[in-house]
Structure formats: C-alpha cells, structure tokens
Design goal:
With about 300 residues, the chain is mainly beta. The protein is about 10% helix and about 35% strand. Keywords: Signal.
C-alpha cells in the first residue's frame, strides 16, 4: 500500500463511545460536478460545547493515496474576488480578514468526535465553506453533525457555530477517494438572520492557476507539537508533487487537524485577504515537513459552483 500521512482528521476525545445527537443523512446525489449530502442541524450546536472543542486530542490516520487514475482537468483560469468584512508552521499574528474567515470544522467520524479546518469564501448564497474532501466524507461514509466555527481560538467561538445543511465533494473523491480531488465544501445555515460572509467576510477563490507560486497555508493543527487551539500558517514558494499526485506542495510542519485549511496566492499580509487556490490535504510519511494540497482545476470549480448556488 502506498501509505500517506493525512494532515487532517483529528479525533477529539480518547473515548470511542460518545453520546451525541443523532443526525439523519440522506442518500448522496452526484451530478453537476459534485457529490452532495443533505444533512440536518438538529442538536448540532448544543453538542459542540466549548469544552468538547477545547479538549481536542489528535489521532493520525494513514490514508492510501487512492487509484490516482484521473488527471486533473484544467481549463481557463478563473478568479473570484474576495468579499471584504516564509514560515513552516508559526502562529499567525498578522490579523486581517483571514482570522475571521478561517476556522475549525467539527464532525462525527466513525462514531468519534473529529476536527478539520475550513474557510468561508465568496459565494452567491453567502454560506459556502471550502475544506478537504476527507473532511466531509471518508472511508465510504459522510460525516455527521458537521459544524463550522469561524475565528476559533482557545476554545472560543467568537462568531458562533454554523451547522451545515449540505456537505459536498468532487465525484472523484466520492467514488474512489482519489487524492488529486481531495476537495470538499459545505453550505451552512444562516445565523441570526445573517449569512456567513455577511458576518465574517469571504475570501476570493482562484481556479486553473499556475504552480510554483508564493503561497500561504493556514489551519488548526492539533497533533504534537500543536494543540488545535492556535491559528497556524506556513508560507513559501510552492512546487508540484513529482511523486503520486498533481498537488501543490509547500514546506510546512502542520499536523493532524489542519486539513481543509486554505491555501492562498496573492495573499496580502496587511489585509489578510487573498485568492484561495487549494486546501491542506496530506503529507507523505517518508517526506516530513512538507504539506500537499490539491490543484483547483475545472472539477474543483464545478464543486464550488454547486455549493455557491445551493
């Protein structure tokens, strides 16, 4: 097996048997460039207390990179402007919009509490979050009790908890867990009569861009030496994976819990805004301190379009 260390699923509790709200999950539908899972928010925000979020304990998961038979389809370059409201893994102290748009994602995976990272992006519905594919569906099952906590820090949810009404991923990840297509999205429910991006802002998104660019990656790693409570970033010149995938790569030592966190190009440190061009996805066990993120091609654009219009 071609094993890779996933940078993502961080289990939030040592106990396997955890009582939580039951979530009804409809059969997923695949079409129009995305696999879609309808979910419910009943009891989700009550379940995710600050104590459960703050006491996160990471568990690394080994992931087969998958079949990798499908090339990433590239088309015309597309950029979606942001909505305004060189490190290998340091706390982000620059402030700006990214502190609000990025956040932690919490859900139940295989009966356990788990976490990833995510980011609010510009969208027609104002309620779209981008993350990794395995942060919405993994090992053949969709995650339940999915909630986004923008601006998370030290167990605090300054903008509240935003439960998902839909989670989505690419058809290639839904069918085969192909690492080239490890991209996910969620549509969250408005809170207090306001959309997500009206509340925290939304970052721009870019598709079909170039490799070998200056990029910034953000997330909430929870495995040692991190604890999931701090907002961490990596910055440097990206390159293209020459091993198994068509992913971007970036020197970075973020650990479990960071998956789904945004990668930006054209990132402005002063304003904390940029064009999201990938997400934290995985790292090879034999290649430490390097993070990989999927190329945002036409299939990622189709996924974004489906989520943004939901």
């Amino acid at each position: 097996m071609r094993a890779a260390r996933i940078a993502a699923l961080s289990l939030i509790g040592a106990a396997v048997a955890i009582v939580g709200p039951a979530t009804a999950v409809a059969d997923p539908a695949t079409g129009d460039g995305a696999a879609v899972n309808d979910t419910t928010s009943d009891g989700v925000t009550d379940y995710w207390t600050s104590s459960r979020m703050e006491n996160a304990v990471s568990l690394d998961i080994n992931l087969d990179p998958g079949t990798l038979t499908d090339d990433v389809k590239a088309g015309a370059e597309v950029e979606i402007d942001p909505t305004l409201a060189d490190s290998t893994g340091d706390p982000w102290t620059g402030g700006g919009d990214v502190v609000n748009t990025a956040g932690r994602v919490f859900f139940k995976f295989d009966g356990k509490d788990a976490s990833c990272s995510g980011n609010a992006v510009t969208s027609d519905n104002g309620n779209t979050v981008l993350t990794a594919g395995h942060c919405v569906k993994y090992q053949g099952a969709w995650h339940t009790d999915w909630v986004f906590v923008p601006g998370y820090h030290d167990g605090q949810a300054p903008f509240g908890e935003w439960p998902a009404s839909k989670t989505l991923t690419t058809p290639q990840w839904e069918a085969d867990e192909d690492m080239n297509y490890d991209v996910g999205a969620a549509v969250v429910e408005p809170q207090g009569g306001k959309s997500l991006t009206d509340t925290v802002g939304g970052q721009g998104v870019a598709f079909n861009g170039e490799y070998n660019q200056k990029m910034y990656a953000f997330g909430f790693p929870a495995a040692d030496p991190y604890d999931g409570e701090k907002f961490i970033y990596c910055g440097g010149t990206s390159s293209k994976d020459v091993l198994l995938t068509q992913d971007h790569s970036l020197p970075c030592d973020m650990t479990g819990g960071s998956s789904g966190g945004p990668w930006f190009r054209e990132f402005d440190e002063a304003t904390g805004t940029g064009l999201q061009s990938s997400v934290n996805s995985f790292g090879y066990k034999f290649l430490p301190n390097v993070m990989f993120g999927p190329y945002f091609g036409d299939d990622a654009k189709a996924l974004y379009d489906k989520a943004a219009a939901a």
